[in-house]
């Protein structure tokens, strides 16, 4: 007979909600929150401000026209509407017109969290019960299905219309359930959808992966440096101090840190740009990424509302805060920077294929004379670089005139953010080719790095996920494994501790 434990069973503690106040959400915090269903809560003072914003909007609408609240939208801006919430419902239903694949859950979740934070910043004029609806949907993993295409960088109108219909129970959620949890109030439609929150979410979640790729690229570059017997002179602190770009100095310092416990024997006076300019190119890319994150942080904690409801002035301002040009330019810069960093990896791959550089056989071949070894990896990188080059074209160069000429400029920030994710995917393929070659070259040189060092541990983890055979064979599975390896944290123990 089992003896009953006399101690009372402890009830599990409910999760402590993360407080949003409309002004302090960071990109790091957002990407962490968006990974899984999460409990967030509004700061009481910020929620009160949002409530007063709604009251102010209702009061102003009773005495003067407000775009989208007492009028139609776009080319219908001069058309008065007087049928209350029915106009809002028509607006949401007509604007819920997206195309393409569904956005992943973490992006939709991030967008909903951003929108809550923006509403709490004040200025939207939305009824505050939308805050509760968005927060509860995120916490209970009841995410609307949202198409990836439809925005042009002047507000994510279609995406947030689809979110609105999902919250209202008019359309099924991602898991096919129908869960009504919100009822639109008169005047709610345009304020809810007049936001770039989905574009910001897409770009913000991509920045985490780009940062991860950059760290992998630096470490793989150092492995290639060892395999090609390249010089460490370009990474000297004195060299970096002569130019003083912060990103460049940080990258060079990181290279010195990785190489500190390893024997370096340079075979040449000077190496190709793939090694010599690594701090300059990766450093500039890192700085571009930080500038993008700064722009996104501003967007997440701002009122990008049109019209803007001012509680303090008891008035409304019709404006262009919805325009995504600051986002588009920042994303375009990050795209170009990442593209150059990927090109640098392709340059190092060429060095790894050259017997004059490695002291090994052409294309790291192993077997009868004429064996091709890693030759096709150069084709693979060239194909990926071609895709990168097309995606790197600035989205901000796009142009359109729509809605009977009333909307005659667009940033195409949404397209830029999508292109950034495309470039990242192709950059992983390029870096995977370099990783496979660097690991093979070090193996053929019988270089076994101490696994107690960060670089040695990284090399060991990479080797365990790759096929050790070096005779001619298909490398597709190696590529797949290497890409998966590059999607993970480069130093799990270090990053977990951090």
Automatic annotation (TrEMBL):
Basic and acidic residues composition bias: residue spans: 1-13
Domain of life of the organism encoding this protein: Bacteria
User: Which Gene Ontology MF annotations are present?
Assistant: lyase activity
**Which UniProt key words apply to this protein?**
Lyase
InterPro entries, per the entry: Aromatic_Lyase, Fumarase/histidase_N, L-Aspartase-like
Q: Which SUPFAM superfamilies match?
A: L-aspartase-like
Q: Does the keyword Mitochondrion apply?
A: no
List the protein's name: Aromatic amino acid lyase
Q: Where is this region: Disordered?
A: 1-20
């Amino acid at each position: 007979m089992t003896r009953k434990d006399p101690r009372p069973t402890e009830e599990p503690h409910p999760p402590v909600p993360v407080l949003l106040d409309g002004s302090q959400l960071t990109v790091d915090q957002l990407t962490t929150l968006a990974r899984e269903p999460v409990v967030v809560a509004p700061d009481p003072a910020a929620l009160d401000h949002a409530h007063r914003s709604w009251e102010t909007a209702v009061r102003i609408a009773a005495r003067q026209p407000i775009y989208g609240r007492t009028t139609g939208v776009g080319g219908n801006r001069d058309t008065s509407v007087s049928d209350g919430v029915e106009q809002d419902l028509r607006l949401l239903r007509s604007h819920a017109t997206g195309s393409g694949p569904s956005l992943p859950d973490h992006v939709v979740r991030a967008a909903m969290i951003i929108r809550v934070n923006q509403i709490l910043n004040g200025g939207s004029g939305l009824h505050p019960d939308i805050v509760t609806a968005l927060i509860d949907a995120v916490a209970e993993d009841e995410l609307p299905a949202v198409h990836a295409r439809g925005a042009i960088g002047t507000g994510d109108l279609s995406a947030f219309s689809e979110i609105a219909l999902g919250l209202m129970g008019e359309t099924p959620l991602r898991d096919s359930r129908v869960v009504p949890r919100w009822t639109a109030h008169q005047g709610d439609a345009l304020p809810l959808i007049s936001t770039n929150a989905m574009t910001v979410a897409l770009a913000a979640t991509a920045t985490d992966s780009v940062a991860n790729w950059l760290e992998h690229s630096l470490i793989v570059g150092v492995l290639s440096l060892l395999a090609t017997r390249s010089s460490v002179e370009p990474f000297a602190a004195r060299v970096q101090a002569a130019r003083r770009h912060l990103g460049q100095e940080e990258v060079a310092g990181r290279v010195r840190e990785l190489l500190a416990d390893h024997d370096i024997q340079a075979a040449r006076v000077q190496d190709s740009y793939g090694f010599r300019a690594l701090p300059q190119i990766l450093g500039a890319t890192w700085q571009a990424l930080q500038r993008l994150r700064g722009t996104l942080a501003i967007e997440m904690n701002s009122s990008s509302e049109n019209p803007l409801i001012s509680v303090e002035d008891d008035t409304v301002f019709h404006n262009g805060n919805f325009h995504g040009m600051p986002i588009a330019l920042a994303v375009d810069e990050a795209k170009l920077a990442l593209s150059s960093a990927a090109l640098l990896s392709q340059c190092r791959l060429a060095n790894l294929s050259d017997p004059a550089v490695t002291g090994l056989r052409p294309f790291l071949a192993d077997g009868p004379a004429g064996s091709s070894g890693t030759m096709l990896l150069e084709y693979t990188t060239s194909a990926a670089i071609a895709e990168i080059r097309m995606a790197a074209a600035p989205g901000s160069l796009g142009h359109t005139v729509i809605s009977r000429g009333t909307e005659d400029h667009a940033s195409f920030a949404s397209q830029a953010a999508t292109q950034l994710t495309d470039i990242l995917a192709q950059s992983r393929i390029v870096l995977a080719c370099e990783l496979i070659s660097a690991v093979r070259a070090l193996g053929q040189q019988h270089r076994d790095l101490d696994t107690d060092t960060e670089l040695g541990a990284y090399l060991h983890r990479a080797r365990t996920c790759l096929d050790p055979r070096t005779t001619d064979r298909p490398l597709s599975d190696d590529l797949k494994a290497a890409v998966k390896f590059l999607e993970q944290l480069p130093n799990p123990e270090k990053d977990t501790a951090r």
